[in-house]
Amino acid sequence: MRLRVITTGGTIDKVYFDAASTYDVGDPQVGPLFKEANVTFDFVVESVLQKDSLQMTDADRALIRERVLAAPENLILITHGTDTMTATAAHLGDLPGKVIVFTGSMVPARFRQSDALFNLGCAVGAVQVLPPGIYIAMNGQVFPAAEVRKNRAQSRFEPKA
């Protein structure tokens, strides 16, 4: 298996800057997390953006789509901020022949009690067994991207009502 990971920023890659008391999007964390997890599959990490998803534009989403289309791999994992993950997924909705799984985290990967590693593991498992399409893997569940929403009050993803 060869997996292309496209990173776009979001909480998963955020770094806390003590002096400024703010968070900023840092370098992609997926490579170090995969190394720490001792994964045995072939992967490439492509950093496309380093943005909070609330700052993403339609031009950013078009760039992500372009990078997915250009990828020689059929298995694509996209790390993305959770606030607009579904909006970006909607921009990719008609791409044939690829399994695309979005994931992210509610807590930065650099934090000890982050959900990042668990969500990445769920996404890696999902991308290997799902048919072509667009999915979101969060909170231990995998959803078709068009059928999920973020419940901000509960800090989780759930099926649309």
UniProtKB/TrEMBL annotation:
Q: Which species is the source of this protein?
A: Lacunisphaera limnophila
The entry's keywords? Hydrolase
Highest taxon above the source species: Bacteria
* Protein's recorded name: L-asparaginase 1
One family name in Pfam for this protein: Asparaginase
Q: Which residues form the active site?
A: T11 (o-isoaspartyl threonine intermediate)
Q: Cite the EC number.
A: 3.5.1.1
Matching Gene3D superfamilies, A to Z? L-asparaginase, N-terminal domain
| Residues reported in the UniProt entry to bind substrate | S53, T82, D83
